[in-house]
Backbone:
């Protein structure tokens, strides 16, 4: 494509980004998280989300992280929430507590059983049975923005991609207003999926979930569990770098940059980054996307 026609080069694309973090377990991880938030906040993301540990194991830490984001920054927070291991009443209380803390955006998920992805999901007695029921439950509790997941390569438990898209449609009917995809490496997979979703009459934004490959082995292993495919060309790019983290990071930045810039050329302008609580790669990729630190308003003081 002629450079002048490429939105990734001609500066005409209006890029929006959002960032996902996980709640820290240790003091050291807490410091790293807040350094990352401080670095990424000036890029003025549309929202930042904080994950909810499998089985609800991070309920308090997720809440504490989000409360601190509300108190100490100008960022727009979103809380992940799953149906796992809690009754409807307990989950409703979590949602109300978020509202009280100033969080009005929930990323609503079914979640995986405590044994991990791939094991059979059983709803908690008296709990929300599906992500669709959770979305409807949250919407009943008040004026919340609700984001849900989407699976360009289908969720491993879905029989077909069409069934998976039916689930997405049900979540939208229940009140979801945005979806974030599972990460993927072949842009064609996402673009074809987006096409099918639109043909199905689903018109909410479907943000591509981008994972910078900080550690290829780990990412490939996680991908196997979640049904995301890892192309051979990606494995080839990291081949032989097991003991060379510095080069791995450069390759990771190059791979993610290539992915997002290609998507921009395809007309995609909203991106969700799985940051893994590390800012450097994501900051560099956002810079390539043309994002610059906004001078005002600065985030309030963020102490490490
Ligand atoms: P669902 O919407 O539940 O869909 C999964 C599959 O379940 C469907 O494809 C279908 O086969 C079946 N299904 C669901 N509802 C119905 C229905 N009404 N009728 C028929 N079949 C149905 N996990 C965490 O524990 N914490 C997190 O913070 C977290 N954040 C995530 C963020 C994103 C963007 C993504 C993509 C995933 C996240 N996950 C998280 C993982 C997620 O919990 C698992 O993938 C889980 O297995 C599925 O939950 P879901 O809400 O993503 O999918």
Residues:
């Amino acid at each position: 494509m002629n450079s002048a026609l490429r939105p990734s080069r001609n500066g005409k694309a209006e890029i929006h980004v959002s960032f996902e973090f996980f709640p820290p377990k240790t003091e050291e991880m807490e410091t790293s998280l807040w350094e990352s938030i401080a670095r990424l906040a000036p890029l003025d993301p549309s929202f930042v989300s904080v994950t909810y540990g499998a089985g609800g194991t991070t309920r308090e830490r997720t809440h504490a992280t989000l409360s601190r984001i509300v108190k100490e920054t100008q960022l727009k927070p979103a809380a992940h929430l799953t149906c796992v291991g809690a009754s409807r009443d307990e989950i409703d209380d979590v949602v109300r507590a978020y509202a009280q803390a100033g969080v009005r955006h929930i990323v609503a998920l079914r979640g995986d059983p405590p044994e991990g992805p791939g094991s059979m999901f059983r709803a908690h007695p008296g709990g929300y049975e599906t992500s669709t029921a959770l979305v409807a439950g949250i919407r009943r509790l008040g004026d919340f923005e609700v984001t849900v997941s989407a699976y360009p390569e289908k969720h491993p438990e879905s029989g077909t991609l069409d069934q998976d898209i039916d689930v997405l449609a049900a979540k939208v009917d229940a009140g979801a207003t945005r979806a974030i995809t599972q990460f993927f490496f072949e842009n064609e997979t996402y673009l074809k999926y987006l096409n099918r979703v639109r043909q199905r009459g689903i018109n909410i934004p479907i943000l591509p979930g981008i994972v910078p490959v900080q550690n290829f082995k780990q990412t490939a292993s996680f991908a196997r569990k979640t049904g995301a495919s890892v192309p051979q060309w990606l494995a080839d790019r990291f081949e032989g770098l097991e003991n060379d983290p510095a080069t791995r990071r450069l390759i990771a930045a190059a791979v993610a940059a290539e992915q997002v810039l290609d998507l921009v050329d395809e007309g995609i302008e909203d991106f969700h980054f799985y940051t893994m609580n590390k800012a450097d790669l994501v900051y560099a990729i956002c810079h390539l996307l043309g994002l610059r630190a906004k001078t005002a308003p600065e985030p309030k003081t963020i102490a490490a």
